[in-house]
Design a protein that fits this description.
This protein has 137 residues and is an alpha+beta fold. 15% of the residues lie in helices and 31% in strands. The protein is globular.
Amino acid sequence: MRETETFEYIRRKYPNKEETWRKVTRLVKFDENLEVKSVHDFNMECYISSFGRLIRNGILCNMAYGDKYDISSMFTDTDGNQVRFKRHQIVMQTFFMGDRRRYDTVDHINNMERFDNSIYNLRSVSYTHLTLPTKLE
């Protein structure tokens, strides 16, 4: 399945929502413990839409979904590092640019529609309420 196929479905799913675009300027990577691992700034012509579509150098991307219905994109940051981000992470971090905190992650609201990377099917989940087990002496 390709993005153009799923976009038609997503468009019909949210008939009263307007597609808006934002420039991708900064994305954050997290480690396996959900701690901020690195912050990446970008100075490129790359835009993400509220429906999860990506325009890069003026070209609308039409990628094929992976076996888990995810899409990843490789970017080169201002320091020359190549980093890969999943589409839902790009959408959430660009449209909700507040400080990325420790233990934040992005989740699909309807996990059966993981191809829907619109802001209407994503949520930011914070695990700060969890406590780690303490070692008993």
